[in-house]
């Protein structure tokens, strides 16, 4: 990988990692669902008038917008608001890799290798370790929501694969149009008009910085950069770099929010990181399903 592209990869993963504690700063001011709605409104407008619509059916744009905006990021924000540490959230969202493995087996008749099975086992052990250290029912629910968001991300990956889209940046911009309205309706149903009445007074400097970082950094710049890397290099060379996201997420949460994970939490997070690393290893399939491929 060229030095400039390696630097881009580190910058993208760092911004995605920093996005978790910076999102927490915004959640301290704004309702989680409204913050998510604002993020995707600004991700879509006015950019849909400047970026040509990708050559895919509207159903794929709508499906991805609802999955990415409502089922993924709204759940992450709700989970963090309920007490999930942002560093832990940045790691838990990587469970999308294991869910994607499962979809590959179920939908595309792919076969698992021994390293992949070992990685799933290690990840399960790490997850149990993290959950054993959770205090309070609200935080436990928050962890469940973040895990559901990882499942949603894996479904989003399948949508991109099935749709055959090539223009990922344009796809994200146009798909973002479908997220704000459901998020606003959910905020009204769950929290009533009070969240909307309080919003103007909550848009202070910290909240606006958090929102701008989420939109223009974590969404626009990072998806452009990641797509460029995927275009220039094999997926097998780019994908392992995503392991840097939880590393930056945990370190930045310590720096920005003063998070201090306990020994058992470090052990659990270490197991999950090890699982992700092992899962990247190539191996022969343990079995080949009819119509499948290694």
TrEMBL record:
The record's subcellular location field reads: Membrane
EamA domain location: 6-131, 141-278
Keyword Lipid biosynthesis attached: no
Q: How does it sit in the membrane?
A: Multi-pass membrane protein
Q: Where are the bilayer-spanning segments?
A: 33-51, 63-83, 89-108, 117-134, 140-160, 167-190, 202-226, 238-257, 263-280
Task: Name the UniProt key words of this record, in alphabetical order.
Answer: Membrane, Transmembrane, Transmembrane helix
A matching Pfam family: EamA
Chief place of localization: membrane
PANTHER family cross-referenced by the UniProt entry:
AMINO-ACID METABOLITE EFFLUX PUMP-RELATED (PTHR32322:SF9), INNER MEMBRANE TRANSPORTER (PTHR32322)
Q: What is this protein called?
A: EamA family transporter
Q: Which organism is it from?
A: Pseudomonas yamanorum
């Amino acid at each position: 990988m060229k030095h400039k592209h390696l630097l881009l990869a580190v910058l993208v993963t760092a911004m995605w990692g920093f996005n978790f504690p910076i999102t927490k700063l915004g959640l301290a001011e704004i309702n989680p669902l409204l913050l998510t709605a604002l993020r995707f409104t600004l991700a879509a407008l006015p950019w849909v008038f400047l970026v040509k619509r990708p050559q895919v059916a509207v159903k794929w744009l709508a499906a991805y917008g609802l999955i990415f905006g409502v089922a993924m990021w709204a759940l992450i924000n709700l989970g963090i608001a309920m007490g999930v540490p942002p560093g832990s959230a940045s790691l838990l969202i990587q469970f999308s890799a294991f869910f994607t493995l499962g979809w590959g087996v179920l939908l595309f008749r792919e076969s698992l290798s021994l390293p992949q099975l070992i990685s799933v086992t290690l990840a399960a052990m790490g997850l149990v370790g993290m959950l054993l250290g959770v205090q309070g029912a609200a935080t436990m629910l928050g962890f469940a929501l973040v895990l559901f968001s990882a499942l949603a991300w894996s479904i989003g990956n399948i949508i991109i694969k099935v749709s055959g889209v090539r223009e990922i940046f344009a796809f994200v911009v146009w798909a973002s149009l479908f997220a704000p309205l459901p998020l606003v309706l959910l905020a009204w149903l769950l929290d009533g008009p009070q969240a909307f009445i309080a919003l103007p007074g909550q848009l202070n400097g910290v909240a606006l910085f958090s929102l701008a970082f989420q939109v223009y950094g974590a969404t626009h710049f990072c998806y452009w950069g990641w797509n460029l890397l995927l275009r220039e290099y094999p997926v097998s060379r780019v994908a392992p770099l995503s392991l840097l996201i939880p590393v930056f997420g945990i370190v930045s949460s310590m720096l920005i929010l003063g998070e201090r994970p306990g020994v058992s939490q470090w052990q659990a997070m270490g197991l999950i990181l090890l699982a992700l690393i092992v899962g990247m290893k190539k191996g022969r399939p343990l079995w080949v399903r009819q119509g499948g491929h290694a």
